[in-house]
Amino acid sequence: MDTDGRPVDRGYAAGARAGLPFAVATVVLGVSFGVLARQLGWGVAAPIICSALVLSGSAQFAAASILGAGGGVGAATLAAVFVNARFLPMGLALAPSLVGGRLRRAAEGQLVIDASWALANRGDGTFERKYLIGATLPQLSAWIGGTALGALSGGLLADPEALGLDVVFPAFFLILLAEELRDRQAAAVAVLGGLIALTLVPFAPPGIPVVAACGAALLGLRRRR
Amino acid sequence: MSAVWLTIILVAVASATIKAAGPLLLGDRQLGPRATAVIALLGPALLTALVLVDTITAGQRLVVDARLAGVAAAGVALLLRAPMLLVLAVAIATTALLRLLAA
What we know:
The structure holds 2 protein chains of 2 kinds. By secondary structure, chain A is mainly α. In chain A, 65% of the residues lie in helices and 0% in strands. Chain A contains 11 helices and no strands. Chain A is globular. Chain A starts with 10 loop residues before the first helix and ends in a 12-residue tail after the last helix. Chain B has a domain at 1-30. In chain B, strand 1 (57-58) and strand 2 form a beta hairpin. Chain B is mainly alpha-helical. Chain B is extended, with a radius of gyration of 20 Å. In chain B, helix 4 packs antiparallel against helix 5. A two-stranded antiparallel ribbon of chain B has the order 1-2. The chains are: A mainly alpha, B mainly alpha.
């Protein structure tokens, strides 16, 4: 809260600055998606349009790899839905911090991506709306631009995995997690969430273990000591 | 229409629907303190799950490979308060080096 008692929002420009290092990492992810899709025979236009419409790395990688492994349209779409299901609780969390009518809120909700959501999270259940939107914009440009770079350069970059680029996703999430571990309760939730996810991996379709991990947040119902 | 284009359209519509659902359902209603306390803890739960799933699983199997070393190295860099891009560079370099040595 600032001196007037209104919650602080550092604004679009500050958000964009905070999103910039994540945008650099996102270019790398975009390039790997472009290369992967090109190798799977998507051509040049489809990966770029996919990134511009879907705006979600994890869902796109999931769908592309299932199509690549010979899966059907239904299986690929379902995998992407599961992987992106975490945006449902994230959207519910964010909704009260947005402004305007339902349609405007739903439109602004499209701009939620993992890094912006975490950066704009005040840690008390509310979010800095302008800061979130500001943080998303450079990352979206980086995602689409990186995909174009990867799709166009296709054959030049033979194997993103040999270069270690597949570790960018988990390292990216680890950096965001470090910011979230504010106290012992957050650490306890993190451990429980991790246990839930890993326990479910062998049984549940990909994506579901991550959604189920949200259940660990119910520890918030216990009063803080 | 090819399978690729159909998948792109379906995934785009599904993602937009998922992201719109929360704001559409809640509108301008504010949540109570109990719901807010739970929401405040979604971040650590989600992010830990994402880190672990992307580091030590492949499909529905648990696997230990060069990714784990890369993420562990990133963790050490974070503890040493390295800037974000250095943390990512350490993760990538460690993973790539291990794969090079194993190849």
